[in-house]
Structures are given as structure tokens and as C-alpha cells.
């Protein structure tokens, strides 16, 4: 027997091993990096992610007894089986640990009136690095959502599925995240970045071919752990909502950057940096999209670095490892660099001229080693396909 290599092939093979029959189908969803537009999604703003080639796959078959079983493949190829759940009985707070993610999706779809209560067998395999801020949990949720919808024979619009997945994450898992990651995983297409205006809910594809400009997006997984269920993310989100309320606007997206200084003085001091970040970050997204459309990718560098400075100094979600990644990449000739995702650990990206790749990599590794930090993992990110059915 040939060795399964892709997550989809691994999930299918593991399903057959566990259940003694082939799965009815296999669905998969990618992780993402966000080129720019951080902590803007829950402020009704703009984001610009692209999908990674790394994916989480779910091999699935329906059951008839109302039970959902979920097994996931570890790095050693072994399967970890979650306690089976009765889909009709799922209630937020009843499933803990990694199994809360697939259970939450089943719960959210059930709440939506989708026929998932007959149950299903799911087997998961993937290669999105976990806890690296590259959206592995959202990839898992999106793949499970497509699998359960596929088994139910329901064809839904991707932005709607993203909202259901967000509900499962917010209300079942208990992480107060926005809609960036689910939308990226479900709506991205190969060779493009996704310009998403959260308010309008309209995904727009922007061609993104770094190689054509002699550039690459280098991902630096700092391996500093990151978790969105902890308080830091929710506290900032609550601060933004409080600021919007004081300013009398529906969301911080509605603050005009031309009036930013006058607006900030109307706020308590602790909220000013949050608002400054969100307003300037939305502006940086729009300027990045404009440059991409004009084929001027190299000029995006300062916007990426500006985003990092704003996340570090105003939003205060960076950490030592992310700053070392960004500073050491810049010192070796990156055109721009920034942390990606929620922050407090996870990954950074650097926009790098292809001929500087080795130097940047050496500089980042040396920067981490000189501070006795865990060796980071580096790879070049290629904009890849969004979620879909594999077989
Ligand atoms: C995390 C969240 F899940 C997203 O919704 C988004 O807010 C991001 O942090 C910050 O831009 O990835």
C-alpha cells in the first residue's frame, strides 16, 4: 500500500482503518495568513488574508443513531478518539478540549435548522501547525462544517457558513473571535488575497503573485504559544465596543481617519490607543489593496511594518518572540514585517526579496538563538485554495 501524503488521503486511510469501510466523502479547509488588517474584523472593518497550502481534512460518513464520533490523527499517525456525543443533546459548555471545535460546529448547524442530528463519524488529519496563529482551529471547524453540510446534502453560501462557524466558536467553544479566519478558510482562492469588507460581507479576490515581483512572504512561526480563549483578546474587543458606544458610532470602522485626533480626545485615555490602531489599520488595508491592484507589491513593506508597530505599541498584542522575528527580518533586508493573527505569540510574516531569503532566515534564527528562544519554524507562504471537497 502506498503511503498517504496529503491530509485528505491520510484522513481517508485512517477512516477506513478505524471504521472498516471507506468514508462517504472527504472535505478539507486551509489555514491562513493575514497580509494586513488585524483586529479590524470585529470592528466591522477590512481584512486581507490568503490561504496557506496547509490544510485540515475531515473524512466523514453519516450515521443513523444520532451519535457523532470524532477521531483525530496525531503527528505520530496514531488516532485520538473523543468521547462520542449525541448531536441533539449538545449544549454549550458540555464538551471540553479539542473536541469542542467539531461538536460546536454540529451544534451551530443544528441551531440553524440543518439536518445533522442523525449523527456522523468523522476522522481528522491535517498539517496546519497548531497554536501557531495560522488558524488551525478555524480550518478544523470549516472542514467539519463542509463535511456535515455535505452529508446533509445542504449547499450554503460560504459567507453564511463562515457566520455559523463563528457562532460555534463564540457561543460553544467560548472564544470571542471575529470572522476573519473562517472567511479566509472558506472564501480564499489560489493565487489571490481576499479583500473582505466585514460590514458589506462581500468577498473580493485580489491577484497576489509575490514571485512575479521577485518577492516572497516568509512565515515565521515563533512557537510561542497563543490562545484566543484567554482574556487579552476579549478585553481588547470589549474596549473597542466601549469606545464605539462613547463615540456614538455603530463600530470603529465609522471613525473618519481625517478626524482621528479630535475623536481621540473624546475618549478615556486607556481607549485611545485601541481606536488609533483600528482606524489606522483599516486605512493601511485600503492602501495595501490599492498597491496590489497597481502591481506595486514592493511598496507594501512599510504598511506591514506600520501595522506591526501599531499592534505592538497601541494595541499591545505583540510579544518578545514576535518583535524579535520582525526586527531581525527587517535588519537582514525584509521590505516589511508584522505579526499576524490575534497576537500574544503565534506567527509573523516578512515580505522578502527572493535573493535575501537565506540572509533573512539566518538573521531570524540568530536573533532567536541569541536570546535563548525556541528555534522558530520558517516557510514561504504561497496563496492557496480555500476549503472544498477532496473526494
Ligand atoms: C484572531 C481572530 F480569530 C480573528 O477573528 C481576528 O480578530 C484576528 O485574531 C485578529 O485580526 O485570529
From TrEMBL:
The family line of this record is: Belongs to the GHMP kinase family. GalK subfamily.
The cross-references to PANTHER family, in alphabetical order and at most eight, read: GALACTOKINASE-RELATED, MEVALONATE KINASE/GALACTOKINASE
Q: What class of enzyme is it?
A: transferase
Listed name of the protein: Galactokinase
Q: Which residues form the GHMP kinase C-terminal domain?
A: 290-362
EC number from the UniProt entry: 2.7.1.6
| SUPFAM superfamilies in UniProt | GHMP Kinase, C-terminal domain, Ribosomal protein S5 domain 2-like
List each copy of the Galactokinase N-terminal domain by range: 13-62
Alphabetized UniProt keyword annotations: ATP-binding, Carbohydrate metabolism, Galactose metabolism, Kinase, Nucleotide-binding, Transferase
What the entry lists under InterPro entries is as follows:
Galactokinase, Galactokinase_CS, GalKase_N, GHMP_kinase_C_dom, GHMP_kinase_C_sf, GHMP_kinase_N_dom, Mevalonate/galactokinase, Ribosomal_Su5_D2-typ_SF
* Domain GHMP kinase N-terminal residue range list: 101-187
| Species the sequence originates in | Lentzea cavernae
